[in-house]
Amino acid sequence: MKHLKNIFNALKGGLIGLFLATVTPMAAQQDSLRMDSVEISLLTCQPHDEIYSLYGHTAIRFHDIRQGGIDVAFNYGVFDFRKPFFGLRFVFGLTDYELGAYPYRLFQEEYRRFGSMVTEQVLNLTDEEKAVLQEALAVNLQDENRVYRYNYFYNNCTTKARDIIEQCIHGKLQYNPKEDYTPSYREMVHEMTKNNPWSRFANDLLLGIKADSKTDMRQQEFLPYNLMYDFDHAEIYLNGKYRPLVKERRIAVPAGVQIQNAGFPLSPLETMVIFLVIGVIIFLIEWKKRCTFVVWDVLLMLITGIIGIGLFLMLFSQHPTVSLNLQFILLNPLPWFFLWPVIRGKNTRYWHITFALCILFLIGGLFQHYAEGIWSLALCLLLQSILHTNRVRS
């Protein structure tokens, strides 16, 4: 979250020092902090309108319920927008997140301010497992361990919380996944961005064919709500006995009023349909008058070329779901090499190439889900290609 980096830095010396001081050999530990008075919980946060929170959030709560006991939220989602090229690094999969620890009440206030509900699942851990988890969190808080390379699908704030909890459980943790629930990464992203159509459109532009593969239960746990569901239905098997992973579920922050910022009035599909209608009208006028509007040709080339540069750069991203993107057939940097000859009206080779690419692009839509309405751009380019190649023949 945006402000947590500053909060974490302000409290790092005192609160974290207190927590680290409790991590001692077992005998001393029992004197300083009785584990039977400690609750460790998984916190699942409802999404809100900020772009970085469209998918929700996960954290861990460490709470000594004795009077004056420590109450800390551990958050693997601390980042700093102010770092140079943050957005560019995020797109290329080079973003570093870190573990932060700060008073739980500040965590509550942050989500209460956004109107986001926070669900708390108190974990059914033994005193020994709590001690192991406490020590593991303390180790993760050390300067050399706190920072990690973030990956949205495979290594994010939710999977990090899941992994450290699993590592500290004695016995076999058994999940009971939903039957016949195998959505793709793209389908899950669509579900979380259904109220943010332009965010969904941008995601679909960047995500490639691998994002359309079906996922298993473990892969689905990159989303906080999926992990919360799986924890609710998980059991720990040890010495012939089962115990539920979650001892109690409660609402830590009730749902409030969320303010939705007004976005662009048209959806991507509506925008692209309007764009196609304009393209068809221009094509009919050009065909009837046996002319071409260079301005329209250049506009189409600029749009595909600009998007194409972005998709070309994605080939070098560390995100594995963006490297093979069939939209690159059409949206690529090729127009930049032909822009000046097309402006001068002395090159038709570009339109022959574009005609073939448009056909391949439309066929590729059978194998990959494209960004909503992007086919409108392909049809506009196809019409212009037909117009230009027909002029050459006549």
Features:
seven-stranded antiparallel sheet, 394 residues, single chain, elongated
What does this molecule look like?
This protein has 394 residues and is an alpha+beta fold. It is built from 16 helices and ten strands. The protein has helices at 4-21, 26-32, 86-91, 104-114, 127-141, 143-146, 157-167, 185-192, 197-206, 217-220, 224-232, 268-289, 294-314, 334-344, 349-364, 374-393, and strands at 38-45, 57-64, 71-78, 96-103, 118-123, 147-149, 172-174, 235-238, 241-244, 246-253. The strands form two sheets. The chain has a seven-stranded antiparallel sheet. Helix 12 runs parallel beside helix 16 and helix 13 runs antiparallel to helix 14. The termini are far apart. Residues 1-10 and 24-32 have low confidence and may be disordered.
Q: What integer is the average pLDDT?
A: 87
Q: How does the helix and strand content classify structurally? A: alpha+beta
Q: Within the largest sheet, what's the order of strands? A: 6-4-3-2-1-5-10
Contiguous helical run count:
16
**Rg estimate, integer Å:** 26 Å
Oligomeric state of shown chains = single chain
Q: How far is the first residue's CA from the last residue's CA?
A: 61 Å
In terms of topology, how is this protein built?
Elements: H1 4-21, H2 26-32, E1 38-45, E2 57-64, E3 71-78, H3 86-91, E4 96-103, H4 104-114, E5 118-123, H5 127-141, H6 143-146, E6 147-149, H7 157-167, E7 172-174, H8 185-192, H9 197-206, H10 217-220, H11 224-232, E8 235-238, E9 241-244, E10 246-253, H12 268-289, H13 294-314, H14 334-344, H15 349-364, H16 374-393
Antiparallel strand pairs: 1-2, 1-5, 2-3, 3-4, 4-6, 5-10, 7-8, 8-9
